[in-house]
Fold each of these.
Amino acid sequence: MIEPQGTVFRIGCIREKANALIVRELKRRGVQGLVPSHGSLLFQLLQEGSLSLNTLAERVQRSVSTVTVLVDKLEENGYLQRRRSESDRRVTLVSLTEPGRSLSGNFLEISRTLEERVLRNLTREEVSVLDGLLERILENLREGERVSQDGERPLSSR
């Protein structure tokens, strides 16, 4: 049986290798100023057009402060812009600029390359099982977040 630390270690290795592939592909395509952590933000904005910082943070499952740092960098590199909502001036909306929108082809190709590499030797059935297991792992972690936000003891101390 694999120790739980071994599974978590492998998940970390997979993330590291996937990020390295993304960085190589971005460099090969001459895309400047992007890192793998920008991908989920860009994807959401490509899909939605314009989102508030809070909604963007919810969609990518990150804190508003983390998303703000990522948005700062993307704005600095000219890939997106911020503006105040006309209906609620307290809300900051984020949207892609033309250079940001022009990344969609590269973004989709790199995503496809990564997906093909990750799943290369797996059958459809294995991919389906893997997806189910990964979703259960995510739900376990989300449950832990909900418990800690409710002020209850962490699951490991019960």
Amino acid sequence: VFRLHNNEKLTPITLNAITAATKVGGEVSCLVAGTNCAKVAEEISKVKGVKKVLVAQHDSYKGGLPEELTPLILQTQKQFNFTHICAGASAFGKNLLPRVAAKLDVAPVSDIIEVKSSDTFVRTIYAGNALSTVKCNEPIKVFSIRGTCFEAAPTEGGGAASEEVSASSPVGISEWLKQSLTKSDRPELTSAKVVVSGGRGLKSGENFKLLYDLADKMNAAVGASRAAVDAGYVPNDMQVGQTGKIVAPELYIAVGISGAIQHLAGMKDSKTIVAINKDPEAPIFQVADYGLVADLFKVSLWD
């Protein structure tokens, strides 16, 4: 299992990936690559289900460039003869694992939602409207997991041993410069318990302030439909849907979102869905637990 981190702490989807890996059977090893990532390695060693932590440190791993990490994963797989390689289906995992699979000359299985056995997985198709059971006959199984479909592994109760592994030779075709993250006191979108999302019905980026104010009162994250992103109302890192982020919060509030099939694919597993739309025929109401047919600018929700 490859671990995503920022040299200080794990990303939440890492714990979901560990749970998925334990369902495959056999011992689970975690590969941690970075610079000065001893703190992360120690954190992983305490996670229940992990038997061994492999640590590789080199300046070339700064920023987690996939072209630098792929040779390391291939080298480690060969050294320890791993039969399965997995990671979370985040933007990072979706970038990294296809490279690894291509180098191994195997077909990857992406965004799985269930592990049936060591060679059989379940994933969604047709924007989440059907399930496909995939039997993978490749000698090395490479797969990514949808974090919202697996419980996070307990961060206590483990006692994995750590082992240093040799860093791979730097590829040097690209260089990590810097990363500028949007500063916000709101929860991260994919891990928030409450998400408030807006669509084209908000009519402008300025009107998203209504959602920001509501989200701040509820300690919620703010998302958006692709229509709102394409219209330039909000940046694309807020997009929820098939081509955006997959969320499954305790509460999802959809405001001014019609409910295109691509958007529903990214949020339909939310525990409770509330929809506000002036069109009573909007598809979003078909998946909503509670619906309000009204002009979003006239409801008292914002008072």
Amino acid sequence: MVERVTRKNENFESALPLTISAQYGLIDQNEFFDKRIASKDVSGYYLVRKGEFAYNKSTSSDAPWGAIKRLDKYESGVLSTLYIVFQIRDENIIDSDYLVTYYDTDLWHKGVQAIAAEGARNHGLLNIAPADFFKTTISMPKNIEEQRKIGAYFKHLDHLITLHQRKLEKLKIIKKSFLEKMFV
């Protein structure tokens, strides 16, 4: 269903260093950390293209078994070879938006838990070989149309949540402004 991507940035197609955040997805390192973590020479990094997925094996409170995110925000970027990058092999068998939704759940954790040996955590980094990662199963409806409907539904819901978050931020600004003017 999915296959590993090991394409290196040998021709310097991208100079955008990415990181994977459980909360924000694949994002520019400079934006996330307020500094560049990647080395200056990124030719040995993986070149990730829009629509491809990456697995960050680092654990956090938001992602106890790491995070898997799709590159949506940029056309391409580069990732450290510590990450596992993959793409959908056949879009007629599995829907990309469904896979995004699936990896936002904890259903896939069971497969990772089974391959992460006891004591395999090394400073918050899970010791999972790519070959083992790709042996995990993906729970999904066999009907591609059902997958597309599920993926589209949650994509729409995420968009709606984003719109409401923006509205909330604007209302907070308005409230702050009123409070400042009221108590001068």
Amino acid sequence: EGRLGRDFLKRIKRDGYIDVYSRKGNFQYRVSEESLMDRLSTDMRAACRLIDENCRVLTVHGSKDQIVPVTDALEFEKNITNHRLRIIEGADHEFTLHQAELATVILDFIRECRDRGMTSRL
């Protein structure tokens, strides 16, 4: 079914939007036809090139993510100058069983950036 659920295009056409909920049933965000088309038409390579080379970027991706393919994270790695990619083995899209490892990766990245100073590259 994916992130937007079954028959999401039909529902957007019918209602003008769909609401996306977490697995626990909590509202996360609303997708309109306009926002979906905008997102689908975004040239991610061009968007990546707009990121300042001094801006540090961390991408953390789960190897078992069935919503966003790992290849998307690999594309970020190729197209963002000051980028660090960490793939967490066995993690799904929400890092369900890997919260501690996710937190460690993020905190280590923040500490490393802090210790290197605001303008240095990774």
